[in-house]
Amino acid sequence: MVGKESGRQRRPGDPGRPAATERPEIAVVGAGIGGLTLAGALASHGAPYVVHEQTRELAEVGAGVQLSPNAVRPLLRLGLGPALEEHAVRVEAMEVRGWNGRPIARTPLGAACERMFGAPYLTIHRAHLHEALLSLVDRDRLGLGRRLSSAYEHPDGSGVRLTFDDGTVRAADVVVGADGIHSTVRETLRRDEPVHSGLGIYRGLVPVDALPDGAHARLVRLWLGPGGHFVCYPVASGAYLSYAATVPCASSAGESWSRPGDPEALRAVFGTWTGLVADIVTAVDATHRWALHDRPALRTWSTDRITLLGDAAHPMLPFLAQGANQAIEDAMDLAACLADAPLGEIPRRLARYQSLRIPRTAEIQRGSRGNAALLHLPDGAAQRRRDARMAVHAALRDRTALYAHETGRSVVPVPA
Ligand SMILES: Cc1cc2nc3c(=O)[nH]c(=O)nc-3n(C[C@H](O)[C@H](O)[C@H](O)COP(=O)(O)OP(=O)(O)OC[C@H]3O[C@@H](n4cnc5c(N)ncnc54)[C@H](O)[C@@H]3O)c2cc1C
After folding, report:
1. Could you tell me where the beta strands, DSSP code E, fall in 226-295?
2. Whose Cα sits closest to atom 15 in ligand 1?
3. Which CATH architecture has domain 61-126+195-294+376-406?
């Protein structure tokens, strides 16, 4: 439908402007972890939605993602228990060591985490999580090959016009930008740019069978060294270790998640590190590398009809492993805010959503930035003080603010 608005069906006789009491159709831009969780949560409430995704074929990068209880609880509520059971790994503990193997801290997870926070700490291949989320979405409501080029909110409150790269124009009552760190929807609200952290990351998978026996342990392991750190954990029911190796990176060029990296360059940095780190980089035959960016926290991210979620709203460095977890939290709160809202209520519901989410995500953005310097201290007095602090704060109860946070259940809109 080139040049002509298409979208939801209006009632007969309605010239195009919906009544304030009508149920709005929600257009979600982006079918990543955040967009699909939102679509799945809206579907569970029976709310009308449509998803527009730029890629023609949905595929996720070959890497893992850590899911903490604050995100696992809502995923279980959405019915993803069996899929997580099939593919994810229940992590027993998180261990932190120095680059030379000296122990720094150990946080027990496993059964203790389930008792304390009502859900396990999981690690999963991104493709498996994506596939599980897709199962919640009605395929007729998922449009692939639709790259949004602009969103225009009509000043008279009649909705939003979405224009796609192929010239298609669609009308929407509400638009959610779940379109990642380079969000086109965010551009309509704010003029800012991603900020390069000075760091880059290598990521990939290694078959566990190619590694010594100890590699099988159900652990999230971190090794900290001067200027960089190395993380690994099992995915695909334990068949692979997903690794992420952070290094200094002067240039912010080549940011794509699928850009090939040089395994020799990875080995040159980490080949001299202790035990399993050296074993993993020795076993790597292909890797991906990209520069790490975030953006400053926003004070507002909603208008009357447009809002943001996930990396579009609050892209963060991966040093608290919360980007995807926060996208899931956003999606659950936003779905709860919008699910039963008639059109006339939408501006207040979007305001409510951002008031729930901005303080929490801004703090996690700041914490993730702060960790960048902390994790990469040179050996010496400051590093020893950091190690001592990490050991003291390794108890599971120290994660309460992060892991106990509840979403989507008791979201009551503010009174008029
Ligand atoms: C190295 C690394 C490790 C990480 N590890 C973790 C972890 O362990 N735990 C964790 O919680 N988080 C982690 N994260 C962060 C996490 O991956 C992201 O925060 C999360 O994927 C964000 O999801 P999203 O849905 O907001 O965005 P994305 O996953 O970026 O999805 C955006 C979607 O929008 C589509 N899109 C973009 N532009 C358009 C357009 N114009 N029109 C239509 N569609 C469009 C894209 O194709 C994509 O499908 C990590 C990140 C990095 C870089």
Report:
1. 228-235, 240-248, 260-261, 287-294
2. 323
3. 2-Layer Sandwich (3.30)
CA distance linking residue 3 with residue 404, whole number of Å: 48
Closest to 290 in 3D by CA, of 82, 63, 86 = 63
Q: CATH assignment of 1-57+144-194+295-365, given 3.40.50.300, 3.30.465.10, 3.30.390.10, 3.50.50.60?
A: 3.50.50.60
pLDDT in tens, 198-234: 999 999 999 999 999 889 999 999 999 998 999 999 9
For ligand 1, whether the C-beta of 318 sits within 6 Å is: yes
End-to-end CA distance of the chain: give it in Å, rounded: 39
Catalytic entry in 121, 202, 233, 403: 233
Contact 148, 52 (CB under 8 A): yes
- The length of the chain, given as a count of residues: 416
Cβ atoms within 10 Å of 213's Cβ, excluding its own = 7
Q: Is 242 helix (H, G, I), strand (E, B) or coil?
A: strand
The protein residue whose alpha carbon is closest to atom 52 in ligand 1 is 318
* Mean pLDDT across the chain: 91
Is 233 known to be catalytic?
A: yes
Residue 310 binned pLDDT confidence (cut-offs 50, 70, 90) = very high
Residues 6+ apart with CB under 8 A from 394: 96, 105, 106, 107
Helices (H), 106-208: 110-117, 126-134, 184-189
How far is it, in rounded angstroms, from Cα 397 to Cα 215? 27
Domain ranges of the chain: 1-57+144-194+295-365, 61-126+195-294+376-406
The residues pairing with 98 across neighbouring beta strands, listed in sequence order, are: 224
Closest by CA to 304, choosing from 265, 344, 245, 334, is 344
Is 407 near ligand 1, meaning CB less than 6 Å away? no
Counting residues of the chain whose pLDDT is more than 70, the rounded percentage is 91
Q: Which of 298, 244, 292, 332 is nearest to 34 (CA)?
A: 332
* pLDDT number for residue 412: 57
Whether the predicted model's global pTM rises above the 0.85 cut:
yes
- Same CATH fold, 61-126+195-294+376-406 and 1-57+144-194+295-365? no
